[in-house]
Design a protein that fits this description.
The protein is of the alpha+beta class. It is built from five helices and 13 strands.
Length: about 280
Amino acid sequence: MGAAGNQNVQGEDQKKLDVLSNDIMISALTASGKTAVLVSEENDEAIFVKDNASDNLGKYCVVFDPLDGSSNIDAGVNIGTIFGIYMVKDGSKGSLEDVLRPGREMVAAGYCMYGSSANMVLTTGKGVNGFTLDNSLGEFILTHPNITIPSRGKIYSINEGNSSYYHEPVMKYLDMVKFPKGDRKPYSARYIGSMVADVHRTLLYGGIFGYPDDKKSKAGKLRILYEAFPMAFLTEQAGGKATTGTERILDIQPTGIHQRCPVFLGSKEDVEDLESCYK
């Protein structure tokens, strides 16, 4: 089979994994009886869960990206699942208004990362904990209790291949970390291209992860509901900061389920340096 044929097969496999993971999540969340509204990166419209057998309605709305970073599968790069959870508003039977809310109203958020190990990082609004799958038990074991981001890191994580499209504040910040003044050392560059993997490293080691808006992607690339909000929630719960550059991510009022926004998150002092470039 030629190279083009191989690429087609790989592309089809990736699509199958995207679809399969989405179907599995929707089936499990629907069957749980706990959910009322589901929003997936893979579905154009929200899914409203109705229990025809009774009047019972699930209390939760789940927003998720079933397979983040799936374009990296063939390269063996870590990929993952990102999710955020809201409670249905009092008196609601499940509607878009239950999910089109600022991220600060989420009750839980997290991600699973699939690579050499399977990790789950979770917050319910009382700090952040990390778990690792024990294959012999088939259960997740608490391996990273109370994850706390260092107040300052030594790593910046951004796709510098887009530099020609970046706005001045981002270029100013990159100059700051690559050519620092005084006795500060230059930061190391680490960019995987899988949000789950890049944010996971940032949570553990500190530094800053960024995916800004630019001249090409005018609203940024990452989706607010199921990428920016959950990761911002985790970051703040771990003692870090998450911003668009000009406003706190968790304060954004979304108007559409697939809306995008710029994202910068990580160590508190590093994010504050970034914000200073926007002022």
